[in-house]
Amino acid sequence: MIHVEEHKDPQQNLKSESFLLPKKLYLPISQHVGAPSKLLVKKGDEVNEGDMIADVNGFVSAALHAPASGKITEIKTISHPSLKQSQGIVLNCQHQQKQDSPRKNIEELTSEQLIEIVKNSGIVGMGGAAFPTHVKLKPPKEISTLIINGCECEPYLACDCRLMIEKIKEIFAGIDIIRKLINPKEIIFAVENNKPEAIKKINLAISTKKIGLSNVRLAIVESAYPQGGEKQLIKAVTAKEVPPAGLPFDVGCLVFNVATCFAIYEAVHFSKPLIERLVSFAGDALVKPKNVWIKIGTTLKELFDSKVLEFKVSPKVIVSGGPMMGVALTGLNFPILKGTGGFLFLANTSKVDESVCLKCARCVDVCSMNLLPLEYSKLVKNNEFDSLDDFNINDCIECGCCAYSCPAKIPIVHYIKVGKACKPKK
Ligand code: SF4
Ligand code: SF4
């Protein structure tokens, strides 16, 4: 773990705003881990807000829904923040606003029905991983500890913090649904100690017992990076270590991000699929940072065209996500995806050239997965992709601690991404 400059102010204190009337939406069918969704619409089709426009396509996959009513104008390759390109749907919005109608008899729904609702709502992990939630809700092993992840350890991002401050009751209602499905012995709500207002809200909700959950406790963890990584968080709050190449259920744990809990609540209580989310916008190139509710598929360009966001100065770097794990973008023609928690617009950055490895081992000392990061850059530079698995490259969570700490400024995570893409598939 490392301590990085947090840059959480003023975002954590900015009340959320809404921009729910985009003109056009760009919806990649790959917004999640697993197989791209299967198209259900074609050019010229009229759709209503919330209609499923692409279905799950295999065991690990997620459905996609129309975030607004309108007409499908194109099915084409569109820019994707991390995949570079993906097939997708272009929707011209007409905005016949749909009213949320509460679902009746929620208590009578069976586990199978609840999981089907989550599946048919296209929910994925919203902390960035974008793993389909309906798959995660059927763990192959017994779960003793359900961990709710409110850490949000990436610098600059504050959308989870705002969600906890503004929607804590709804988050707990989502947690209650997860509890019914996996029946854990205990629920740990984990938050970093740099979110006092969110902590107050959680404490109040737990102590007044209005949430109807008895086996939940708050764990305030140190603000460090990457505290919100699943394996790091499990160790911090349960002292259990997920084995190399293992998953949280191997140690009886499941971890859900707070925004995912909120999405589950909306799906079950209001039949609302995942069509919008809270997103943080930050960085010194902006006139004002913001936390904004946005329809999935809205482009950054439309947010600037409509003056929701404004540049003070031209940014040198635009990043989808935070500075540690984010992806640098080439412009504003990128859509907001289900797993996108924020964007950074930085004016004051200087390019530093990498030099030779000093063999100082700082990258090894800070690696959150106990790996040997210096080996990855060496092997990739020498095109020795076959040897990467000898150093368990797949265990790397691409947290960026190694590159951040490297005095030679070696972009180790870049080499790791290249290595993962080029190594022989097993
Ligand atoms: S090797 Fe991977 S897990 Fe280890 S510090 Fe670097 S990016 Fe993080
Ligand atoms: S931190 Fe950088 S310079 Fe030091 S051993 Fe790792 S890769 Fe080499």
General description of the model:
- This protein has 426 residues and is an alpha/beta fold.
- The protein has four domains: 17-93, RNA polymerase II/Efflux pump adaptor protein, barrel-sandwich hybrid domain (OB fold (Dihydrolipoamide Acetyltransferase, E2P)), CATH 2.40.50.100; 106-270, Rossmann fold (3-Layer(aba) Sandwich); 281-286 and 294-346, no CATH class; 362-422, no CATH class.
- Helix content is 25%, strand content 21%.
- The chain contains twelve helices and 17 strands.
- Strands 1-14-13-17-15-16 form a six-stranded mixed sheet, with helices on one face. Strands 2-8-7-4 form a four-stranded antiparallel sheet, with no helix packed on it.
- Strand 5 (52-55) and strand 6 (64-65) form a beta hairpin.
- Helix 4 (168-182) crosses helix 7 (258-270) and helix 10 packs across helix 12 (412-422).
- The longest helix is centred in the middle third of the chain and has 15 residues, at 168-182.
- The two termini are 30 Å apart.
- One iron/sulfur cluster (SF4) is lined by residues 367-369, 371, 373, 396-402, 412-413, 416.
